[in-house]
């Protein structure tokens, strides 16, 4: 029974990594679609959404089956709980990619406008957060996850700067209000992707260290870090 349970944990990890790859690809395609005004990439993002949704359902079902199979150890329980939460955040990353693709599809129908914001730079920062969050899960390293938390403030500042700049642009150049609004919504979607990457990083820290760092929560005596290899990592 324990061997079967361990195999289930390995399968759960593999499926989550596969889903992480799909979510990362979706946001990369959406961001590149914005930069290049590329409708083909937009359509690929939209077509890939159903696969991400299906993967989310399959991962949740496998996780619930493992919880029902036997009483897991503390580190295995934390792993399964973390996977279910990361699974949800990855699905939402896919949703944000769809939102960005839809905004790009709207922008392509409009005259191209020179907007004083660097969405490409923000997109690169957000993509790096998602990639590093997934790396922290793959390697089971809380220090990598901690680095993602520190990057979130940078993206928040970019979002704030974009909001201020684009609102000013809409006031000064009302004829490109729709283009500026699309860019503003893309910036907001990117900031939300960063939030999901942060959530993933927090869940990795919870799995590896048993520490709850959400909302800057602190523990006077945090549990000793346990090797994630106990869960097949």
Strand-helix topology:
Blueprint (H helix, E strand, L loop, with lengths): L1 H35 L2 H31 L4 H35 L10 H21 L2 H31 L4 H33 L24
Helix pairs in contact: 1-2, 1-3, 1-4, 2-3, 3-6, 4-5, 4-6, 5-6
Keywords:
Methane Monooxygenase Hydroxylase, Chain G, domain 1; mainly alpha; single chain; 6 helices; about 230 residues; elongated
Account of the 3D structure:
By secondary structure, the protein is mainly alpha-helical. The protein has one domain (2-231): Methane Monooxygenase Hydroxylase, Chain G, domain 1 (Up-down Bundle). Helices cover 80% and strands 0% of the residues. It has helices at residues 2-36, 39-69, 74-108, 119-139, 142-172, 177-209. Helix 1 (2-36) runs antiparallel to helix 2 (39-69). The model is unreliable at 217-224 (pLDDT under 50).
């Amino acid at each position: 029974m324990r061997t079967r349970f361990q195999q289930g944990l390995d399968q759960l990890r593999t499926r989550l990594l596969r889903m992480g790859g799909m979510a990362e690809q979706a946001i990369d395609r959406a961001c590149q679609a914005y930069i290049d005004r590329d409708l083909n990439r937009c359509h690929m993002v939209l077509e890939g959404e159903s696969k991400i949704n299906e993967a989310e359902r399959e991962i949740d079902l496998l996780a619930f089956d493992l919880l029902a199979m036997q009483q897991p150890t503390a580190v295995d329980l934390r792993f399964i709980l973390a996977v279910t939460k990361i699974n949800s955040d990855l699905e939402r990353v896919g949703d944000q990619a769809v939102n960005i693709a839809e905004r790009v599809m709207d922008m392509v129908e409009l005259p191209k406008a020179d907007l004083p914001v660097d969405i490409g730079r923000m997109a690169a920062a957000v993509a790096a957060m998602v990639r590093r969050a997934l790396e922290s899960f793959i390697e089971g390293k809380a220090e990598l996850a901690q680095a993602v938390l520190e990057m979130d403030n940078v993206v928040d500042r970019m979002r704030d700067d974009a909001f201020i700049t684009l609102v000013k642009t809409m006031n000064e150049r009302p004829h490109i209000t729709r283009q500026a609004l699309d860019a503003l919504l893309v910036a907001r979607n990117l900031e939300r992707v960063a939030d999901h990457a942060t959530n993933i990083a927090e869940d990795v820290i919870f799995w590896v260290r048993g520490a709850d760092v959400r909302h800057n929560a602190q523990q006077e005596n945090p549990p000793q870090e346990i090797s994630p290899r106990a869960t097949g990592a």
